[in-house]
Design goal:
- The chain is of the alpha/beta class.
- It has helices at residues 5-22, 43-48, 52-55, 82-100, 126-136, 159-163, 190-196, 216-231, 234-249, 288-299, 320-343, and strands at residues 30-34, 65-68, 105-110, 140-144, 169-172, 185-188, 258-264, 267-272, 304-306, 309-312.
- It has two domains: 5-229, Type I PLP-dependent aspartate aminotransferase-like (Major domain) (Aspartate Aminotransferase, domain 2), CATH 3.40.640; 234-343, Alpha-Beta Complex (Aspartate Aminotransferase, domain 1).
- Helix 4 runs parallel beside helix 5 (126-136), helix 9 (234-249) runs parallel beside helix 11 and helix 10 crosses helix 11.
- The protein is globular, with a radius of gyration of 21 Å.
Amino acid sequence: YGTGGSQANDSAIRIIHYYFNRLGKTSKKKIISRVDAYHGSTYLAMTLTGVKADHTGFDLAPDLVSYVSCPNVYRKPDNCSEAEFCDSLVEELENEILRLGEDNVAAFIAEPIMGAGGVIVPPEGYHRRTMEVCQKYGVLYISDEVVTGFGRIGHMLSSEPVFGIKPDIITAAKGISSGYLPLSATMLSDEIYEVISQPAEDGSLFTHGFTYSGHPVCCRAALKNIEIIEREGICEHVREVGPYFEEQLNTLRDLPIVGDVRGKCFMMCVENVKDVSTKELFDDEVVIGDRIAAHCQRFGLIVRPIAHLNVLSPPLILSRDDVDEVVSILRKGIEATMDDLVREGIWNG
């Protein structure tokens, strides 16, 4: 246990290196991540993160992480089908393992749905096929469920029920305690545990932990949180109302700056563009996401702006009536922003 997602992912990497050391495979150190992935803000977790803007001015752990392409279906090549795009991504991962050398690659880390990198839902079959590549070359698979876990997309953990994979490691935080107290978890497969639970030498210990690891008050809050999620049928509620949220948000596509609406259940994103036909973005100076968020807040709705995106992660008890209100306000916020852009001569409508 730790106190946040960054610690959970740091722990995953440290444990994986220890695991391979115990197996005598001491050269397996490299980690493969993805462009626009987000895995935390500690020194190591930020190195795992593939959001280039977050790296500006900071150092990263040298020669540890390489990055393969973001599985953004909206930004795939125009002459490429979703299936072909998935094929290319899987081939790229395999080629990257071979380039680095399978004896040097320890793990591949991936969020089931990318969060801060733009709520990226990968193409159908992506996670299953990338895990198959990892298994082929003895590379461990880390599923970062810090955002997707504990109800956000309708399951306590989404890797197996939604994406059909059983990762070697799952990391979780945020929803494990609903944010009431800081807690994170790094969950290991039996195969990893069986290796690392044996002393490296007589009298040695598994020397990994933090001051507040497994803090009893935080764990008590998490247990009560999980009890409430189960008792109130929160995951079932998200699976019921989530598709309606997706459906209603997709009605915003008739607005001339809404290029894409994506996500799953209560993890959604609207991508705003200058030209829907070409997917051209507004200049960064326009801060289109911030403009829309400001109007929405004035109308009574908080949305998260990330550059040209607006991300929505509502409470897991959101009702259908709430969905209607959220979408109505977001529409007003986008329309008000479009009026501003025309008035300021930034966009011609």
